[in-house]
Amino acid sequence: MDLRLALEIVNLTDAGKVRSQNEDSIITDNEAGFAILADGMGGYNAGEVASGIAVTLLADGLKKALHARLPEQDQCLLVKSEIEKTNGAIYQTAQSQPQLSGMGTTLVCALFHDNRIIVAHVGDSRLYRYRQKGIEHAQLEQITRDHSLLQEQIDSGMLSREEALLSSNKNLVTRALGVDPTVNVEVQEHEALPGDIYLLCSDGLNDMVDDEKILLTLSVLGTNIKLAAQQLVQMANDNGGRDNVSVILVRVLRHFPARRGFFAWLSAWLKK
């Protein structure tokens, strides 16, 4: 099925109100069914370089891999492998150019395939799922779990979630792309349903706008996700805009089962 008929995707990025340059990078591909967001870190313009390399190389790698994939190929392993290759490329670039030494980036990626969403992330950029639960109830769920010092402190009981809101350690990540030769990529797979809205964002959004307001925005503007994206970025800036803020919204319009060709049929038959 053509994913352009099943998915509506919009994206928006803004430097915010404090920073002079935008070190976030985003790429979406409606036809291939993926969205990638990266939040760079490093001195001078190194963060911008790292995030730009991340989204560009990963998008190119995914397109090639998806075009050449076998019918029964594991999509989670495909995404994980491409992110690991991207990590190596960023690391080698930083090693070969002294002015880029120490650069890195967070990453969150969503790939839609066969009525499923594969979510992969490194760092504290997030993916949320907005899902309608009944006629009058909707739920916003954070699917990713931050790879950050703050999250580790919450998990260990050192801080409550209320105390964490006031912490000065919000931006200290424990994993990033390009910092080391290898990286531990967290990958999940979930069922995607018509009506779902998936939000990928840099911490410039969730540090400035709490989950309840994100939920309210998607509840009110979910049928117009372009306007919803604009509203989310505006709220982050209205609340101080202390960081670059980027959002990608993906709305599932209908089911998107994978095409079942001869080889997929043959493989299924042989397993009987």
TrEMBL record:
<dbReference type="Pfam" id="PF13672">
    <property type="entry name" value="PP2C_2"/>
</dbReference>
<protein>
    <submittedName>
        <fullName>Serine/threonine protein phosphatase</fullName>
    </submittedName>
</protein>
<dbReference type="InterPro" id="IPR036457">
    <property type="entry name" value="PPM-type-like_dom_sf"/>
</dbReference>
<dbReference type="InterPro" id="IPR001932">
    <property type="entry name" value="PPM-type_phosphatase-like_dom"/>
</dbReference>
<dbReference type="GO" id="GO:0004722">
    <property type="term" value="F:protein serine/threonine phosphatase activity"/>
</dbReference>
<dbReference type="InterPro" id="IPR015655">
    <property type="entry name" value="PP2C"/>
</dbReference>
<feature type="domain" description="PPM-type phosphatase">
    <location>
        <begin position="9"/>
        <end position="252"/>
    </location>
</feature>
